[in-house]
Structure formats: C-alpha cells, structure tokens
Design brief:
Elements lengths: L14 H23 L1 E6 L3 E3 L4 E4 L2 E6 L1 E5 L3 E4 L11 E22 L7 E20 L16 E9 L2 E7 L8 H22 L2 H9 L8 H18 L8 E4 L16 E3 L3 E3 L1 E8 L10 E4 L2 E4 L1 E9 L4 E4 L6 E10 L1 E7 L24 E2 L2 E2 L5 E2 L3 E2 L2 E5 L3 E6 L3 E22 L3 E12 L6 E8 L5 E12 L7 E12 L3 E9 L4 E6 L8 E4 L5 E4 L2 E3 L1 E8 L3 E10 L6 E9 L5 E8 L8 E2 L16 E9 L7 E3 L5 E7 L2 E5 L3 E17 L6 E9 L2 E3 L3 E6 L7 E24 L7 E9 L1
Antiparallel strand pairs: 1-4, 2-3, 3-6, 4-5, 7-8, 7-9, 9-10, 11-51, 12-13, 14-44, 15-16, 16-43, 17-37, 18-33, 19-27, 20-26, 20-39, 21-22, 23-24, 24-25, 25-26, 27-32, 27-34, 28-31, 28-33, 28-37, 29-30, 29-32, 33-36, 34-35, 38-42, 39-43, 39-44, 40-41, 40-42, 45-50, 46-50, 46-51, 47-48, 47-50, ...
Length: about 750
C-alpha cells in the first residue's frame, strides 16, 4: 500500500475518508498484481468436481486480469443438460470461460433524517464494492470427432468439457491459462540453470570445432545450387501444407491470394494463375437470350434445353397390389440437393496459359479463387491428377482459349438442405441409357384428406443404397392436387447417366397408398422404406408402379442467340461462367463474332480457335451465340440463373505487385529475388524488381537474366539487393509495363531469399 489515511483526535471524519481506506488498499494490491504478477486473463485455485452425469461444481477461485483480481466467494453450480448433443454417437466440447464482474452489495442501515431530533429511518445503502466472477459457456459443434472451440485472446478458459448424449464424458482443465506460483517458477528456473551449466561446459570445445569447419569452407555448394534447393523446398512446403513461420526463403506460384498484399497502397495487379496486369476496364453482365420465346428452345425454371416433348422410358404397371406410404413412424429426413456443375470459358488476345497450372496439385482443398467464382459461390479443388486433369475437373487450354469444366453432372460445392417430416418410401431403378428425366408418374390407389406428398430423385451408391444427401431434383404436390390413378410429378429436367442407379422417394404424413407390382423384374431396382431418415431397407420382391418419363428432342442441333457482350473503349478478353452439362455424344460450344464486320465468320471458342483474332482491334461489342448439339434423346443444357455471367475485360498498361511482408527468422544484409516471367517481349515490355523494407523502396544492386531454352517468351530474372543495414523482413515488389495491352507478360512464380 502506497497511501494511508490519517486522522487527528479532534477531526470530524467524512464518509469519503473511510472509502479512501479501502480504495488505497485495493490500489496497493493492483500495483503489486499489475507490476509484479501481470497475468492477462488467467485463473488460480479453481477446481472442478462432477456432482452428477450432467452437473459440475466449481470451487472458489480467482481470476487475474492484468492488475485486477476477481474472486468467486462461493462454489458455482452448472447444469449442462441444454448443451448435450442431440444425435446418438455425436460428442461436443464446451469451454468454461471465467469472466470478471464488478457489483455493489447493499445492506440495511439506520439513516439520521433530522439533525436536531436525531430521528432515524432504516434504508438500503451501498456498502460493499466487490469484484466477482461468472462462468460463461462457449459451445463447440457436435460431431463424432468434435473439435474444441477457439478461445479469443481476451478470454480466460478454465476447462474444456466433453459431452455426449448421455452426459459428461471428461473434464480437461486449461492449465495454459492457470496462474503459476513462484514455487513452480523457481523449480523450472532451477532446471534451466542446470541445463545452462551443461551448455557452457560443452561450448568450451567449440573453438576446435570452428577451426575444423574453417578448413572445409571450400566444400560449400555454389549459390545457384542453394537457390535451386530453396525453390524445391518452397514447393514441397506448399505440397505438404507445412505451417507458416519465419523462413529465410519465400516461394509463391501466383495461384492463391494469400502471399500478396492486395490492400497495399501501391497494389496494381491481379492474381490468377500467375501475377498479371490489372484491368483498366471490365464489365460483368448476366447472360440473357435475345428471343426467350423462340420455338426452338424450352426453359424449365432456369434450365435451357432445345425444344422437347415427353416420352416414357421405363414403365412398371400395377398388378393390383397396394402399399400405404405413411404407415412408418414419421421421421425428419434431411435431403441435401446438389447443384449442376459449372464451366468457365475464357477467350481473347490476352488469354495466356500459365505453366504453373500443374502446381494446383500441391494445393488440394485450397480455394481456386476466380476460376469458378460468382458472388457467394466459391468452389474448391478436391484433388488434381497430372498437369491438366483434376479429379472431377478438366482444363483444355491453348494460347487464346481456356475451357475449365467440372466433369461431374451434379456436385457438392453448392448445396441446398431441405428438412421434411413424414414416412419415407421409394423405389430404385437402373438407368441403362443416358436420359434427361422430365417427370415421374406414380399410381395412387388411395388418397388421404390431408398430407402433401414430397417426391425426391437422388443418386445411389455403388451398392444400390439411395443417398438422401445427393438429391438431384424434387417436387411437391398438395393433398388437394392428388387423385386416384396415375399422378404426374413434373420435375426440372435432370441428366441421368447410363450405368448408374437412381431412386425416387416420397415423404408424406398423409394416409396415401401407391400401387405395386410383384416380381421385381422391370426397373432392375427395388422398393425400399426408411424409418430413421438415413438407412433404407429394400424389398427384393416388389416394385412400386411407376413411369419414368424423359425428354425427346425435335432437333439434333440448336443455335441460340444471346445478347451481345460490350465494353467501353473495347475488349481484349471475355469470360463466360455458367452451369450446365454436356454428356458424351453432345457438345456445348460458344461462338463470337466481331460486330464491326457483320460478314466476319463466327469463331467457336474451342481449341480450334487457336490463332483466331475475333477480338483483334479491341471491339467494343461482340455478338454471342451458343450451339447445342446432341441426339433426339440426349442434349447439352445450360443454366441461365443470376450466376450465369458474361464478363469482358481490357488490361492496364502498367502493373505493380506487392507481396505481404515475409519474416526471415534471421538478420541479413543481402536479399535476392528470383522471378520467372512468361510472355515477355523486350520490344513491348519492361520489368523492374524492387524490395520494400518499411517505408523504403530499394532497387537491385545487380540483375541477371536467363533465357528459357525451350520457350523464347520465358525468362528468369535474378535481382540481388545489398542493404545498407541488416533487416529481418522484407516485401517483394515487381513493376511491369507494356506498350501494347494486347500483349501482356505475367509472373509465373517468384522466390525471395535471405542470404
């Protein structure tokens, strides 16, 4: 305590004097706690006892928060019933957080109301200001393999509690947040001092070792070999997903955004399979038809197909049998609806293929950035095999055309979850030939007075089990819309692949019944029911009566005109992003035409477009056309929703790319930048490597350029920076210019070394 309150014998004391006694005492404690202890958000003396399967008792203890101490003066009881996971087999971690609170406690006291008569009255007045604690529960996600919740830096975690559906499984105290006593610190320091004594004794022999090292200095590898090793290690670090920490080297292939400071004041570039020139002008338009009412096409919601009529592909007629489709115990079924896969087509004078596409294989589960991206839709690479063929993805590329396609018809990157309540019945079938499903007819033998019927079509796994988490399409008809006999459930047209099994299933609470057929020989599938929303039990002897209807197309080739793409002052590149499918035997091909010359040929955006020049001269408007080619039974399709986009671009004539600050983990006075440039032509282009240290922008003291022996447009630039004073971190910066925006170089990859 640094202050005391003094009183004289004849002095009349005031209430503030007595309050100051407590305030000075607390202030003295805070000086000691904040100056000598200074624990931020740590606990002391708490213990936890489990009093029942779902209850805990936390003993008295204290919370240290820098210079303040908060105390629990009584045990705290916790009931964790509401935090137990709901699904059998799931577990969940919760964190018990200790938070400090200040409160004022009031007591009844006699208060004098008249100074002459000394009349008093009893009143509640504030008597004690105390610092106490409360326990806050931070809940983690439930899962068969749960993870502990992440604790914010300004919170104090007392313990992690693992819960199951039956109660508390384990309590794990968070000792990292516990206040360590001087006794503990003294014990650890004694051990460190012993280790230091051993270290000093061993270092006495280092002089001899250093002399031996000096005699072998001539064996040190050449710096070029060391740079190659660092680049290889940088590639391996990406591939092995090693944690980020200070390194004397940094490598980036220009595939992801994480190595670049896009909010830096001098940033003027973009990261897209290399570091490229930013756009001077760009426009993003929704793909739309010139004539949506054309008789040659048919729109189903947002799905565009050539004009079609409907015909039955699979028919199972009823033989008098019937089955109630609401006799099971009702369950909540979670159906996960997949989305149609995406395709990106890029074309133009400035579309250049980057050889580091092969390095996508080192970035599994990383964001692909702009490759398949629109508004809230950002998709991820699952796996990549080889240089240009990903698992589920495929790239076709030449100099002026890049087509990126997701080869699965329906994929999991954008899904819609639907919860429905009722009995689950359905039937699987074998799709022996590819078809575009348009509707399903079901034969109702009894109609209840209430209860909507939800019909879902889903994929089956290799064992023939229906997958409720892989729904392709769904349709709901109210009880009023049902009738005895065949009822048609019209569906959004959906592509079904040959050789695969599919299933339809109903979910309803109504007292409805469907006709059946015995023998199980028509659909090559089986009737099934589901009682728990996840597992389906099949009937090998019976099928539901059903008719699987598919599209029959009027023409084998359909050409569709779209609204033209425009860009103020002209474009050098365009990009088309949309959903759709193009199964084997069909094709979906875009065509463009320079509107400046109506007699000009339509250029297909395929690999055959190599060498074409539809965007030569930077047209401000190009016409757009889509050709769908297939058979009378199978056609390609395109989704024209809000995410179907046509984008046009023109790059700037200058580029500035600035990396994030890279910590070397050591102090150095020499730094090297190694930059691999592609599409570089010294007639049109300039490049200037720089190093940014704090507010200083440094130019290299020496540069060396190495031409690629295979690709004459490719070269490696090595820049060496000799610093006036040592540094432990730096940023890489590369400035580039072009005198012709139709010919733009880009950085394929870059490395920085601290020597």
């Amino acid at each position: 305590m640094t202050k005391i309150v003094r009183f004289t014998e004849a002095e009349i004391s005031e209430p503030a004097d007595f309050e100051a006694i407590g305030e000075h005492a607390r202030e003295g404690d805070e000086f000691i706690t904040g100056g000598a202890v200074d624990y931020p958000h740590h606990w002391a003396d708490f213990t936890i006892a489990q009093t029942s399967a779902i209850e805990l008792t936390i003993s008295k203890g204290r919370l240290f928060a820098v210079d303040a101490i908060f105390a629990a003066d009584a045990p705290i009881e916790l009931n964790l019933q509401v935090h137990l996971p709901l699904v059998t087999g799931d577990h969940r971690y919760i964190a018990l957080l200790v938070r400090g609170e200040s409160e004022t406690v009031t007591n009844l006291r006699m208060i004098e109301t008249d100074a002459e008569t000394h009349e008093t009255v009893q009143q509640a007045v504030p008597k004690t200001d105390r610092r106490t604690v409360s326990i806050v529960i931070q809940q983690g996600l439930s899962s068969p393999t749960p993870l502990k919740p992440t604790i914010a830096a300004d919170q104090c975690c007392l313990a992690f509690v693992e819960l199951s559906t039956t109660g508390i499984v384990a309590v794990e105290m968070d000792n990292a947040s516990r206040v360590k006593s001087l006794y503990e610190v003294d014990g650890r320091l004694t051990q460190v001092e012993g280790d230091m004594a051993n270290t000093i004794r061993r270092t006495t022999t280092m002089e001899t070792d250093i002399a031996n090292i000096a005699s072998r200095l001539g064996d040190i590898p050449h710096p070029t070999i060391m740079r190659q090793l660092k680049r290889d290690v940088g590639l391996l670090r990406r591939q092995l997903a090693l944690p980020d920490e200070a390194r004397a080297y940094w490598y980036d292939a220009g595939l992801l955004q994480d190595g670049w400071d896009k909010v830096h004041a001098t940033w003027l570039a973009r990261v897209r399979e290399g570091i490229r020139f930013a756009w001077a002008q760009e426009r993003d338009m929704q793909l739309s038809l010139i004539d949506p009412s054309s008789a040659s096409i048919r729109m189903s919601d947002t799905l565009l197909l050539p004009a079609w009529t409907e015909k039955t592909r699979i028919s199972v007629e009823p033989d008098g049998g019937s089955k109630n489709i609401s006799q099971l115990v009702h369950t909540v079924t979670t159906a996960v609806k997949k989305s149609i896969s995406r395709q990106v087509t890029e074309y133009g004078e400035t579309v250049t293929v980057c050889e580091n596409q092969a390095e996508w294989s080192m970035l599994m589960n990383q964001s692909v950035g702009e490759l398949f991206k629109r508004d809230g839709e950002t998709f991820q690479v699952v796996a990549i095999v080889g240089n240009q063929d990903w698992a589920g993805h495929r790239i076709y590329a030449v100099r002026k055309v890049i087509v990126r396609t997701v080869t699965q018809v329906y994929w999991d990157y954008v899904t819609e979850t639907m919860g429905v309540n009722g009995s689950v019945y359905g039937n699987t079938w074998l799709c022996s030939q590819p078809m575009i499903l348009t509707s399903i007819d079901l034969n109702f033998t009894r109609i209840g007075s209430t209860g909507d019927v939800h019909v879902f079509v889903c994929e089956c796994d290799d064992s023939g089990q229906p997958q409720f988490g892989a729904v392709i399409v769904e349709k709901t008809i109210s009880a009023a819309g049902l009738h005895a006999g065949w009822v048609n459930f019209a569906l959004r047209p959906s592509l079904l692949e040959s050789g695969k099994r599919y299933a339809w299933f109903t979910v309803t609470t109504g007292n409805h019944a469907l006709g059946t057929a015995s023998g199980n020989k028509y659909a090559q599938g089986s009737l099934f029911s589901c009682s728990d929303g996840a597992w389906a039990m099949g009937d090998p002897l019976t099928d539901f009566a059903m008719r699987i209807n598919a599209a029959s197309f009027a023409a084998t080739r359909t050409v569709i005109e779209f609204q033209p793409l425009t860009l103020t002052d002209g474009m050098t590149e365009l990009r088309l992003l949309h959903g759709g499918w193009a199964p084997g035997g069909t094709s979906l091909v875009w065509y463009v035409q320079n509107s400046d010359d109506p007699d000009e040929e339509w250029v297909p955006l395929t690999l055959a477009a190599e060498g074409s020049d539809a965007l030569a001269g930077r047209p401000a408007l190009v016409r757009l056309r889509l050709a769908l080619t297939g058979t009378t039974d199978l056609q390609a399709a395109i989704v024209l929703d809000a995410n179907a986009r046509g984008m046009t671009f023109r790059p700037r004539g200058d580029c500035q790319a600035v990396s994030k600050e890279q910590a070397f983990g050591l102090s150095t006075s020499t730094v090297q930048l190694e930059i691999v440039l592609d599409e570089f032509n010294p007639t049109y282009h300039t490049v200037a490597p720089k190093l940014v240290i704090g507010a200083s922008i440094l130019t290299p003291s020496a540069t060396a350029t190495t031409l690629d022996m295979v690709n004459p447009r490719k070269r490696t630039l090595l820049a060496t920076f000799t610093l006036g004073s040592a540094t432990t971190s730096a940023r890489a910066r590369v400035d580039m210019t072009t005198s012709d925006v139709t010919v733009c170089p880009f950085i394929q990859n870059i490395a920085m070394y601290a020597l």
